[in-house]
Structure formats: structure tokens, C-alpha cells
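Researcher: Please translate sequence to C-alpha cells.
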Amino acid sequence: MGLNDLMTEIKQDPSCFLGDEATENKVLNQVLLLVEDKISEVKNQAVKWYLHELHLRLGQLIKIIRQPQMETVVDRLIEFSGGQDEELRDISGLALKTITAELPPDGKVAATACEKLTPKLLGQIGNTSTPPEALVETLSILSILISRFPALLASTTFDPPPLPVLAPLLSHARPVVRKRAIITLSQYVPISRPELFHEVLKTNVFPHLNDSANLEKKRTTVQLVAAVARHSPAQIAPVLGQIVPGILKGVQKDDDELREGSLQALEAVLLRCPTETTPFLDAIVQAGNQFIKYDPNYAGDDEDEEMADADEDEDDEELDDEYSDDEDTSYKIRRAATKLLAAIIGTRPELLIPIYKMVSPVLISRFGDREMTVRLEVWATYVTLINQTAVYGIPQGKDDIKKRKRGTETSDAAESPYSLLQTQAPSLSKSLLNQLKSAKTPPATLQAGFSLLHALLTVLPGSLSTQVSSIFATSKTILSQSPTTTTSTLHLTCLSFLALFFSTHPPPIFAGSLSYLTPVLLKSLGERHPRIASESFRVFSALLNALKPIKGADWIDPVYEQAVSKLSNHDTDAEVRECAEDCIADLWIAATETVRSKGGKEWESIRRLLGKTDGAVKVVTKVAKEVSVGDVWVNSMVEWLLNLLKKAGRPGKLEMFVALDILLKSYTAGIPFGLVPALVAQVKSYISITDIALLSQALSILALLLKLTPRTTFPQVEKHLLPTIYEISYSSLLTVNALDSLLSFYAALVQADNQISTHVVPNLVISVERAPKAEASPANVARCIAQVVKSQPNVAAGTIAEYSKHIKKSSKAKSSLVVLSLLIVGELGRFIDMSAQKDIFANAIDLFGSEQEDVRVAAAFAAGKFRYFDLWRRLTFSSGNIAIGNLSQFLHAIVRLAESDPKKRLLALHALKEVVTHCSQGQLEGVAEMLWAPLFQNSNTSDETTRNVAAACLGKLATTYPSRYLPQLHARLRESNAATRATVVSAIRYTFADNSQSYDELLAPLLVDFLSLMLDQDLTVRRLALSSLNSAARTKPHLIREHLSILMPSLYKETAINPDLIRTVQMGPWAYKVDDGLDARKTAYETMYTLLDTCLAKLDLYEFLSHVIPGLSDDSDEIKVISHMILFRLAQIAPAAVSQRLDEVTPPLEKTMKGANVTKDTVKQDLERAAELQRSALRAVAALSKVGMGVSMRFDTFVEEVKRNPTWGPEIRELFSAH
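Model: Translation complete:
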């Protein structure tokens, strides 16, 4: 009772225990005495109180006990745990486990506990009198410590070290102690000195792999090798050449436990040490193939057996009373062999072709293994093979696709994993479906089987054409039964598969048998389980899309009625409603006449104004696009959408505008007269820069109305909208899409009324002249004026005359009007020949030397978004575009300016770039030779801006006549001038925009030479070469895939931090370091990320990850973020490869999640950057946890700590649910 009262008091007020040290010691010693009390209830109560105190203390809530007291407690607990009292020993072990599990990861308490507790635990292990049960508990505690605090233990020196203390337990008489010792010893290998581990190998591994070694020793040894490979692959990798042969011999020994352990050891070393096990792959595959068929108690012929007859299984079940195989453990060996083969498949994509030849047939033959767990493991392994084929085996390059089209798969040279899967799919599907056809097949087996079939169809659409009857029969059996808690997932899997089946097979294959299946599918539509009903609607949607057009099908009416019933019921689940809406759309498209006869009652339920309407809008859009329903229906839908647009809130309005666009085009008798004013009034509220995306859609609707009903729409627009649109036209916030919509509007406007163009041009100029300078974009106005002139050419002469006068030397116009005039003339010069007005071009050239900056930059403004950095680049926009109108008249003047005037050279080069960028192919072919030499002459400069402009021009010119200019670029690769080499490699990057096959054929033999500049001595050249590789990987991956073995070492070299490129810069009293190699390193990591998407099949992922992991600890936050993105992507596309490196990935992620070190100089921006970096790491952790939980104890512990973190716990749980 006293202990109960004490615990209650402390729970209510932990500080009540605080007092003088003597009193605390007295209470604590009394409780420790009670732990040894002979009465169990008192003893247990004392331990509970004690654990509660430790939890409060170690949870850093309050100091309940002092540091010396904690050491006293630990000593007593260790003493108790090694005693002969079994109950006291168990309770003490539990207490020590609680201590180690509750220690906070940060702070002095953990460090002190590791330093004090570990030697005492090791001492207890070294004590020969310690009972086996205590040894197991002590080893477990040591495992918890090393998994939670590896860094602390690694930084502490223990005497004696852990390995020599733990190694003798490998020979302990009790198997449970040996197994626990194996795990603990393997965990301590990474923090131990190499010579200690080599001593363990010398005494406990190498001797026991010999043929003459004791069988029990061999079992322990292979288990130890597997554990060390999982926890310390780097330490064991160098000696695998001596270990693996012994393990392979152990597989052939006639001992089931040794055989299973050997197969598991091979799996571990294969996963964690792929490079070192490569020489043994053939033998490992052979062992897996041999023992996946190991079944000494089965008398069948393995060679001929498909083990696929479910009838035989039923016969076997009848013999259960006569024969029991409870003692048969051979299935464990078959399961281990299957996992070994799965490891090979998951980590060796380069071996997919031999795997399909040697392993796949064996797997198919074992689809009917008599042990269910083995059977499911075999199926899961084949799913892995199919998924690997999807990622690595489907032809990606143009050459591969051509081979497939020519049908050359039959030759050895053209064999691919994809073609081999095609060949084996019939036998695979037959064998699998035979296992599913029995009525007694368990739901878990059926679900696994349909998952395998789903994976097969995802990669190989149409591959089940010969198995329709079996598929339908099995599906009917499943769907005929009402779903329960245990079978609902099976129903969903089956329905999902059927939807995919109908969408990937031609209708003649299954149409004849459809009446056999549709009754149960219709039954599933009415299921109360919302996900089953949803999936059933998806099945019918897939069926409708496959069979359209449909006439006379008896199942159309029931599907329609079920869909309308779901839509009319206000309690219908949101997902079910969405699927029913989609099904209605598919019914209208596939069975138009049947649904049209129903009177349209479905639209009353779809056209709702309350609740979620996104799905309904999509349905209307889909039907309007595919079917002519009638003007009455169109009119009602337009009115409904207008009412929706009146509702507050933005979600879904973009889709509403898209639907409006399609509906307006659907009128057969023209848009009703009264609709236009209502539409214009509704659209008016969106003619604003508040929401640019909606502005773009609103302008597009207006342009469409002006085209379809110009007489009705024009007066409305002119009266209510045009002044506002003038103001929008000069906004610098317009995006590319919004500006395109605006230009379309002006084109439609001036075509709707021939007189308005003479008013639009001056009004646009007036609006921008009156606008605040900070908000105005004269470049946008110039483009709008150019569009007006292009649509109404009769105003061209007047516009040119009006605004060309402002750029004359004698003009007194203010600078803003000169700027606008230059932009207008430049825009018009793109499509109007101004050779008759030579003075305009001359005046534009003269303004290159203007003293006013805004005049100098005016012509450049229209080239893109305004940035100060880009002003000089865009300076010559007007002159360049004027030259486009008549190259023979004006181009020579620009070239001469580039050659003769150093001050205006950069401006002239920008003018040439405008010419090269906007000229047609035919125009460029005539002037390429004249431009080639001057461009190279002006690229031999240290000014990167000048080089980039020249490179862009050279790249564009090279694509006009590649057979001539590519060799010239190639010849300059070895130029002594680094600036020339930089220009060449940049120019090649610009040529990648040419997607023609003829250009690719000319570039292919030269590309590697260009990219070899990644090894150049000049840092700038290397960075540009890396950027070119990144661009090639994104736009021309088919040209580099086969050369990655040559290119990747150069790329990897640039991911390492080069200390020679780090310099210290003094800024007043402060000094900071500048890494000149950062840009190149960042480009290298960006390139690696690109390669994952385009060249994954050709990457050695083990080596790839070896260069990603250092990026997690890079000094640059940007590189850390890219590395997080790479891990996130790898977790999706190569889970087997990345999950094996989690031990290496965890430490830098842990460091990132700790956040920034707060000092007196820390500012808010530092904390915000650190928080963003932590969120980036969190996304990677969430993705990795989906594939790596259970693989790395340290990673699992880290994830649990993040979950418990009050700041990041909610975020990572949200990420888990989102994935």
C-alpha cells in the first residue's frame, strides 16, 4: 500500500520526491530492498515504482534520481539479472531494457549510460556463472544500445572490447544464446577495430567452413556470416572470396538446418555485397534453382511437373488423415531458395535475360508448391521479376523500339526481357490459374494470384487472351460470395484485375463469355461496401470503353439504373458517387442511343450545386466532347456551370472554364442570343490579375465567343470589358499562357470588328504610358499591338509610321515612349519586311549607344520575363527582329558591328541571336556560313555571357547543316583556349533541341567525345560538359545509354568535394569559405537525378548509391535536397537496391533532422532554411520506410524517434498516409 501511495503522489506531482540527497538515497535503497522481497506482489510493485521513477528521470521530465543514484540502480539491476532467482532475474532484465529503450537520444544521460552500462553488461557476459537466460537478456540490452546510440558507443573505448567478449558465446551450449550472440556481435562489428574482427574471422569463421568442421559450428558460422553481412557489409566484403565457397559447400550438405542457413547467408551477402559476390553468381543461381525444388517427401518428377493441378491438391487433402507432414521442414529450404532467387532478381537487372532463361521456368514449375507459404513466396518472387522487367526490360531507346517493330525478337541478338516474358506468359498464366480454380483455395492465395496476374497485364497488356474461361470462372466464384471482413480485399483485387483485363484485351476475346460474368458484376454494384461498389463501377467503365459502340446489351439498363440510384441517394459515399458519374459518362459515349431513351434523369442528380462537383464537371466535359446530346442539354449545362462559377472559392473553376469552352463549341444551331450577355457578365469578374490562371481561361472564353458570335459578343465586350483588358495588357504578372490567351483575344476582337483596330493600338499605348512604371510591361503591350497588326494588316503602315518616328535622333519623345516604340517596331519586324524603311534599322542601331539605360534595354524587353540580369541580353531585340524581315538587307550591318565595335559587340551578338532564334530553317541555311566564323571569333573571351550567346547561335546553326558544322565543332574540342572549348560544349547542348533522326545519326558517333570534356582541366568547361550530359540524358537518352559505362566515372568524380577549390574570403572582420566547385557538383547531382528517369536500366545502382550517400552530408543544402529527391525516387523504382543501404543512409538523415545549431549569430532565415531541409529529409524518410522497414534496425529506430518527435511526428504520419 505504501508503494502504491508513493507512486500516486509522484504521478500527481513528480517534484514531491525532490529533497535532500540523504532522504532520496534512503527511499531508493528501501525500494531496492523491496525488489528482493519474498512476496511477489510487493516485489512487482517495487519494480513498477522504480521503473516509473526511471521513466520520469530519463524522459527528462524532472530529476527524480541523481546521477550517482542512477549508477547504483543500474549496478543493482545487473546484479539481480545475473542471480539465481528466476523471477527477480526476469524483472531486472525488463527494467534494464526499459532504461535503454527510454533513454533520450540527446543529452549527457545517454552518453553516461552508454559509458557506464556497457562495460558492466560486457562484464556480466564474461562471467562464466551468468545463467543462459540472463545472457540472452543482457545481449538484448546491448543490441538496444548499439541500435540507438552507435555514435556514442563508437566514440567510447571499452576494456575489454565487445568482440572478444561476445565471440566465446558462439560456442555456447544453448542455441538460443548462440543466436542472440550472433545478432549482437554483428551489430558491434562496425564500431570495432578491424584487427578484432579479423581475429573473429580467423577463430570463428574460416575454420568452421571446412568440410571437416563440426556440423553445429557450421550452422552457427553461416548464421554469423549472414548477420555480419546485414549489419557490416563493408567489413566482411574483402574476405567474401574465402567465405562464399564454403557456404556454397554447406548448401550441398545433407543437413536441412545448415542448408537453410547457407541459403539465407547467400541471400544476405548477395544483397549487401553485390560487387564481391559477382564471381559466384552462377553458382548461387544454380543453388537457388536446385533447392527451390527440394522436396524429398514428394515422389513427383520435378522435371516434368508443373504442380499446377488443383484436382491433385484436393486428392492430397483427402489423405490428410493417413499422412501428416508436420515434421517435414523441407519447405523452409524451398522458401529460403526462393528468397535467394528473389534477391538476385531484385538487385541484378543486368541479368534479366539469363534470369528469364534459367530461373523463370523453374519458378513457373513451382507455382503449385504443396506448401502455401512457399507457393506465395514463389508468386511474390515472380511479381518482383515482372516489376523489374517493367523498369529495366521494356525497350526504351529508338533503336530498341525499331527492333520490336521489325519483329527481330526471335534472334539471340534481339532478345530482351520483355520478349522472353511474352514467350513464357502462356505457361505462366496457365500454371497460375490452375492453382486458383479450386473452390477451396484460401482468400490469401487467391489475392496473391490475382495480384500476380495484375502485374503481368500491367507490363504485358493482352497477354491473357487464351485464359478467358479460367479467369471468368475464378472471378465468378469469388464475386458470387458476399464480401466479408476477410474477403473484401480479395473482392477489390479481383475487380481491379478485371478492369485492367477489359481495358487491355480486344473485345472479341471475351465478348462471347461476358454473359457468364456480368450477373455477379451487377451484383457487386449493389454492395454496401463502398470500395467494392466503386471498383465495380470502374469495371463497367473499362468494359464500356472496350466495347463501344454497344447496342442491345442486356446489362446496360441495370448498370444505368444502379448508377442513377447511387447518384440520387444523398448518403452515397463520395468515391462511389464519383465512379457512378464516370460510368454515366461512359454509358453516354458507348451506348448513346440506349441512354438517350432514358429521358435524362441522371443529369438531375449530376447537376447539383452543393457538395463536391468536380466529378460532375468532368462528366459533362467528357460527354460534350464525345457525344452530340442536343442544344437543350448544352444550354442547361452552360446555365449550371454559370451558377457554379458564382460560388465563392477557387477549386474546380479551371475545369469549369474548360467545360464551358467545349460546351460552347457543341451548339449545333448557334449560341442563343440571350446567353452571351450572361456569359460576359459572369466572365467579367475573372478579368483580373488576382488569379492569372483563371484570367487566361476567361480570355479564352471571350475569344471563342468573339469567333462564334461576333455580332452579339463584340458590343458586350467593348462596353463592359475592353477598358479593363487594356489595363491587364501591360501587367508584368502575365504568364506565358495568359499572354497567349490575351493575344488570341485581340486577334478575335479585331476580326469581329474591322474598325476597332485603329482604336485598340493607341488605347494600348495610352494605358501603358499612364501605368506606374514598376507595374508596366511595355514588352507585353508591344506583342499585343503586333497581334492586332498581324490580324488586321491594313493598319500596319500607319502603326510603323507612327512609332518609328519616336526612335529618330531628332525625336523629343520621352524615354518611355522610345522604349515602347522600339519594342513595337521590333515585334512588327518579325513578320513585316522593312527594307523600304532603312532608316528604322539604322536608328535602332544608333540607340545602342544611348546614355539612358531604359532606352538601351528597350528592344530586349520582349524576349522574356524582365530581369535586370537579362537586360543587356535583350538589348538588340528590335534591330534583330527588323533584320529578320529582310536578312540580305540588314544582317551584314549587325555582323560588321560585332566585328568592329568592342563596346557594342555583346549587343550585336544578342541581335544575331534574335535572328538565329526566330528565322526559318530556309533563311538560316542561306546565312549560316556568313555567321559561323564571326561567332567563333567572338567566343574566345573570358566573359561567360558573350560565350553563352555565341554558343546558342552556333548550336542553332549547327542543326541547319549538321553534316557540315558538327565536324567543325568536333575539331575544336582540343583547342588550347579553354573559352573555345567551353563554347563548343555549350553549343552542343543547344543542338539537343533538334529531335530529327537524321541529326541523331550524325551526332551519335561524336557525342561521347563532346561529353568527355567532363575531364577537362578547366572547371568552367567541366561544369558546362556536365550540364550538356544532363541535357542529353533528358532529351536524347537513347544516344548515351550504351556509353554510360564510360561517362559515369567522370560524372561521379565531380560529386566529390575538392578541397583545392575551396578558398577563404575575408569580409571585414569575418572570414567565410567559398567553394568554387559547388556549381559543378550541383550540376553533377542534378544529372544523376535525371539519369534515374531516363537511363535507369544502364545504371549500376550499388555504385550510384555510393555517390548519392555522401551528398546527404554535403556542405551545400541544395545538394542535400537533390540527394533526398534521389532517395525518394529510388525508393519508388528500385526499392531492393536502396533498402540494402539504409544503415549508411541513416546517420546523415539523423544529423539533418536534428536541425540547425542555434547560436547567438543565428537568424530567422537560418532556422527557416533548416526547417525546409528537414522537410526534404522527412519526405525521403517516409518513402524509404515504405520499402525498408525491418531491413535496418538503426533506420527503424530512427523512424520511431521521428514519429515521437512533437514537431515532425505529425508531418511524417501525414506523409505515411499520403503514400
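Researcher: Any highlights?
Model: The CA atoms of residues 447 and 490 lie 5 Å apart.
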